[in-house]
Structures are given as C-alpha cells and as structure tokens.
Amino acid sequence: MNVRLLFTLLIICISLTGCSDEITLENAATPLAHGIDLDEHNKFRFYNTVPLFSKTTKKKSQENSGTAYSLRQSKAQQDAFSPGSIQGRNYQVLLIGKRLLQYEDWFPMLDVLFRDARNTVMDRVIAVDSPLSDVFDLNSKDQPMLPILLRGMVETKSKISETYSTTTQELHRQFHEKGITPYIAEVEIVEKKIKLKGSALLNERGKYEVSFGAQETVMLNILQKKAKPGLSLSYRIPDKPNKGPFATDMLSFSAEKIKTKVITSFQNGRFQFDFHIKMTIGLSEHLFPYDVARDAKKLEKQAAALMQAQIENVIKKLQKHQIDPIGLGLYARAFHYKEYKKVKDHWGKAVADATFHVKVDLTIGAMGPVK
Amino acid sequence: MTSNTGKSITSMQYIFIISGIQVSVSILSLPRDLADAAGTDGWIAIPIGYILSVAAGFIIVKVMQNAPEDTIFDLLSRLMGAWAGKCFALLLGVYFLSFMYDSLNRAILITKDWLLPNTQPYLLMILLLVPTYIVAKHGPQILGRYSEFVFFLSIWIPFIYLFTLENAHGLHLLPLFKEGVLPVLSAVPAMLYPSLGMVTTFILYPHLKNKEKAPINLLISNSLTMLIYLYITIICFVYFSPDEITLYNEPIVSILKSIEFRFIERIEVPFIAFYLFIFSLAWIPSAYIAAFCISWISGKKDVALPLQIFCIVITVSSFFFLPTFNQNDRLGLWIGWLGISIEYVFPLCLLVYIILNKHFQQRTAL
C-alpha cells in the first residue's frame, strides 16, 4: 500500500516537473549569431539572426536589431520580432563592432552569457571592421548563412594559425587574467562579401589596439606556443632576381615541427624574454632555381633571418601598444613571482619596458618531389 | 543491541560508503574554496587534509575496536552511563540530519540553477526523497550495495575531464608556495568539510565483515577521496586562470561547458542529471544514520518510522522554505565546525578516556 502510494506520487511528480520547464521547438527561436555594437549616437545596439524553418518565407533567416541598455534587458525587443521566444542556447558566433571596441570596459556587457547557466559559452568571438548592420543585412547570395560561414571561417583558419578561434569562455579568461591581453578573430566586408582579416588585439580593458594580418598572426601563434604543424609561410628572398612582373624571389614553406622555448629572466629592473624557435620545414614552392640538396644551409639561414625580423617586428608592435597577447605574464608569474606582483596591475607597461631576444632556427626537412 | 547477523558490509562497500559521503556535493565548490584561501597553491592543502583525516579515521577505528559487536552508543552507555549514550545519539542524529539536509539542499539548488530553473523546489525534494527512503530503510547492506553500484556507474566521469586539458596552462600552478606556507595552511580548513563522513564508522562498524581490515579500508577510502579531489582541483587550476577561478561558484561544472562534441551540445546538462547519483551518496547514508540514532534513543530497531518522519517534515518544510545559496553556504560552514568537533576532537578525547579508564581499572584490580 505504502509503496504503491509512493509510486503514484512519484509518477505524478515526474510528469509535473516536465511540464513547467518545457519549451516546444515551435515556441523557441534560436539565434545562431548575435552581435553587439554602438550606433552613431553611441547607444548600445544588439543584432541577431535566427534561422527560419518555414516554407512560405523566401529567406532562410530573420535578422533583428534594436537599441537597448544591455543584452538581457533587450530580450523583450528581440522577442518582439519573432513568433517564438528567443533562447540563447545555441550561439555559434558573437560579433563585436569596431565602434564598441573603441571603448574600454565593455566586457561586463556579456555577463548574461555566463550568469544564465543555459547560455552557451563556446560561441566564437569575432571583431568586425565594418558596421555591424551591414554584416547582418548582407545576406550574400554566394556565401552560406552568416553564422555558419563565420564559424567555419575561424575554425578552419585557426587550425593553421592564421586567426584565433577565441570562445567567450576563453575571452573571460583573457580579460580576468592579468598576465595576458585579449585577442580575437577579425573580419571585414569587402565587395559585399565577408572576408577574414586576421586577428584583432585588445588591451587589458578591451579597447581595440591593433590588427594583425594572416602571417603576423602566425608569428604570434608561434610565440604563444599555439602554432601547430601545417601552417604556411612565404618570404621574398632578398638576393634573388625578379623577372618581369613575376615575384620570382618567392619562397614558401610549411612547418612540420615547431618548438618554441621561452626563457624568462629579470635583470636591471626589467624583464627579459628569450625566445628560441626551432622549426623543421617542408618547402612548398621556390620560384627561383636553387640546389636545395647541396646548399640547404644557406637558404635555411636566409629564411630564418627573414622570419626572425618579422617576429621582432611583431614584438615591437606589441610593445608599442603595451599589450601582451603572448601571455608573458604567466611566465613572469611562474618564474619571477615577486617582481611580477609589483607590476601585475599594469603588466602592459612592464612588457613595453622588457627586453626581448629572438632566435630562429630553420631546418629544411623536405624539398618536395621536384628538385 | 547486538549486530544484525546476515546484514554485513564487505570491505569494498565500506570503502565506497565513506568515499561517497566525503566526495558527493562538497566536490563542487572545493577548487574555488581552496583557491580563495591560497590561490593556485590551494591543492597542496589536499594532502595535508588527507593526513589529518586518515589520523582521525584511525582513532575512530581504534575506539570501535573496544566494542567490536556494538555501536558507539552501547559503548558510551557502558563507559559513562545510559545518559551519555543517549546524548551522543541525539547529537550524532542532529549532525547527520543537518548533513543530509545540507546536501539535499545543495543538490536542489544546483539542479534548479543548471537544469530546471522554473520547477518548484518541493517537487525536486519529493523526487529525491522517494529513492532515499526506499534505499535507506533497508539498512547498511543495501547502502553498501548502492554506493558500490553508483561508484562503478560513474567510473567514466574522470576521463571526460581529460578533454579540457587541451586548453590547459600548466604555468598556472607555478610557483609553488608563492606567498609562503601560511596561505596553504589557511586552506586546510576548506579541506575539512569535504573530508567529513568517517564517523559513519561508529554506526557501521558492527556490520563490517572484516573488522580487522577496517583501518586499511579507511586508508583506502581516504586515499580514493584525496585522489579524486586532487585530480579535479588540478584540472580546474590549470584550466581557469588564478585570477578568474574564484569567480565561479561550481568550477567543476563550468569547466564542462567548454567541452565540445559533435553529437551533443551543452554537455553539462546530462552531467548534472547524472551527478545526482553521486550527490545522493551523501544524503542517503546520512538519512539512514540519523534515523538509526533516533530509533536507538527510543529503544526500537526499526528505522522506517523516523525516516518517514524526516521525509515528510523535510518535504513539507521545503514547500514553505528552502535555504538560498548564501544560507546554504552558512549552513555548510556551521556543519563543518560541528563535524570537526564530532569527527576529529571527540574520538580523540574518547580514546584517551578509554585508555585512562583501562589503566585505572588495572590499577584497582591490582
């Protein structure tokens, strides 16, 4: 009797709990991309794009935007355009307009993503170097849906180190960790198409500082020890002749093995970081005739010098903007904790003061099937 | 009251009951609590807490070896009179009842936060208490089997956490003892609440199959608990930056959100649902022990009646009031101090008393 009563109760309860928290697919609108920016009056503006599952609509997605104070506060406005209720459970990308990035301390605007446990935190964060309204209203005929296009773009290119696939969760870490400054992917609109630009580097409070192109981003990835085999680099070898309109001094290679060693020291009141990069490369093209089998050493040295110069240039840019996307603060904290503690609240300045030494060693591992 | 023959617990079950009570809910906030006290050095406090709890465990077993067939209450009654046994039974009953309530409360808060924000807490309470009653009323042997079952059911969980290592930063852990030894020592109290539970030995000891193996079993279960804590804490520390980990309430759940599989999104949802099994390892044994304490005071053998009363009172009260996260934290702190006095201080005093008592008895005999 007792057990039976309990079981009836149990079954009733189970069905009841299911009822109060359910949402049917018809009543849900799941935006796959959302964006935040400021308008021309510096008012906070949100954007989102919701895929439509309807036979009668001509377009496959619905774009909404509006002015609001914050993301969650804008929910009513977002809902107002849609037959369903907006659910932040499946964001693929988060777009951030350049106008917003001109200001510091915007990160708390994303609080709802972390505080509402049902929101995803694995959406890729991308800076947009064009007005966000243009991106959301683009609906390019020869590019896939915006969220899918962008997600694929950063996913594949970050695998070959040409951009960053920074998730919201990772951005949270980069903002709160004092020894690193945030870095995200950057796109722009070129001829009514979305194009990947490379990466955008922000300062410790989130203000946009500088953009890096594909190859500079690769360099940064190498310094961060994030670069994986498969990345590709091209350099023009200085002592080779150009023939006609063709850049016949071009050398391209891909990395087969990358090893970055960072040595941290503290001397005369400033930090010193020594990078030693060892790479085994496979040649993918050289437009000038060269006997790699006999004279590999010379080419290795030439390419290494070019790469070293480019890395030094990248570091100079970082120092000029007082930013540290490499995360050198982590090394400083791990190995020189006392000195780091003194400067951790203005780590960017400490990086600008620091001395850097870079050494690149290349070894040609393969020259390809032709001589 | 002598032990119930036929209702005995194997060594393995005993290990899992103790580890289950220890790990269960307290693992959720442990990494954050340790980081609060000592930053990324917090994990060093885990082995220190481990040594303390192993020592306390040995003392508890040593006390019980003086009365291998009785519970602690019979022993106390014999030593100091019936009132001492009853007082301690009441104290232990209240302790385990609050332990049970605290873990149930925490589990419901977590479920509400992550899974069912719009569901009424009393419904969850009823749903959780029904299996609690069914398992707990059958006594120690079924408790042991349940703990064993849940343990083997969840053995795959640690492997999932390996997926987070692709974003790990080992540099977070360095340098060791960055602020010296003091912060590490100040993190040890944060380890004590998650180590509570060994005192169940007081009640379970008469039911053990291999009593001579009890100390080694306690050592194994404490080591198992320590390994789990160490593993989870270090994973959280290398994943989250030392500057941000204190911002998460349940870092061990938040970290799951970063795992991506092609076939499932929001992997933390099935995890929380599954974790309820592990959480239940805290409140089901403590429900039984609290009920046992109450029934011992009234001189009856049956635990079903007190259990029914517990379940009904808790359910009805949750209809009107359920502690919030902050209140639950304070309750946990309070239980922590009560637990320290019952599990660490009291057994030591009792052991000293027993030894002195024997000593004096021998002298008077001479």
UniProtKB/TrEMBL annotation, chain A:
Main localization (coarse): membrane
Domain Spore germination GerAC-like C-terminal: 198-366
Record's keyword annotation contains Membrane: yes
Signal sequence, start to end: 1-20
GO cellular component: membrane
Protein topology in the membrane: Lipid-anchor
Alphabetic keyword roster: Germination, Lipoprotein, Membrane, Palmitate, Signal
Subcellular location as annotated: Membrane
Record InterPro entries: GerAC_N, Spore_GerAC-like, Spore_GerAC-like_C, Spore_GerAC_C_sf
GO biological process, one term: spore germination
Residue ranges constituting the Spore germination protein N-terminal domain according to the UniProt record: 22-188
Family: Belongs to the GerABKC lipoprotein family.
Name the UniProt record assigns to this protein: Ger(X)C family germination protein
From TrEMBL, chain B:
InterPro entries: Spore_GerAB
One Pfam family this sequence matches: Spore_permease
Keywords: Germination, Membrane, Transmembrane, Transmembrane helix, Transport
GO BP term, example: spore germination
Signal peptide (from-to): none
GO CC, alphabetical: membrane
Location(s), subcellular: Membrane
Record's keyword annotation contains Transmembrane helix: yes
Membrane spanning stretches: 12-30, 42-63, 75-99, 119-136, 148-164, 184-205, 217-240, 272-297, 304-322, 334-356
Membrane protein topology class: Multi-pass membrane protein
Keyword Membrane in annotation: yes
Protein family membership: Belongs to the amino acid-polyamine-organocation (APC) superfamily. Spore germination protein (SGP) (TC 2.A.3.9) family.
Protein name stated in the entry: Spore germination protein (Amino acid permease)
